[in-house]
Amino acid sequence: MDIEVGGISGLILLVLDVWAIVKVTQSSASTGNKVLWIVIILILPLVGLILWFFLGPRERIT
After folding, report:
1. Which of 14, 31, 41, 54 could be 48's S-S partner, Cβ–Cβ 3.0 to 4.6 Å?
2. Per residue in 8-51, pLDDT tens?
3. For residue 61, what pLDDT is reported?
4. Going by C-beta distance under 8 Å and a sequence separation of 6 or more, which residues neighbour residue 57?
5. Per-domain residue ranges of the chain
């Protein structure tokens, strides 16, 4: 099975991945967790983004 993302959908995925990485770095999670989430998002862009959305570190609301 060969999944290829290109064109506008690839651009949208890239923007969402960059946004997710920025949000991970701004979170209050430990450095190890941040690195782990960034690696997951970089290695598995679509799956990593979905996993981060549901399971990733959240911002603290103060």
Report:
1. 41
2. 888 899 999 999 999 999 998 899 999 999 999 999 999 999 99
3. 61
4. 24, 27, 28, 29, 33, 34, 37
5. 7-55
- 37 with 57: CB under 8 angstroms? yes
Check: pTM over 0.90? Answer yes or no: no
Q: Give me the amino acid identity at 19.
A: W
Residue 10 tokens, joined: 């690839």
- 51 in helix, strand or coil? helix
Write b or e for each residue in 21-54: b if 16 or more Cβ atoms lie within 10 A of its Cβ, otherwise e: bebbeebebeeeebeebbebbeeebeebbeebee
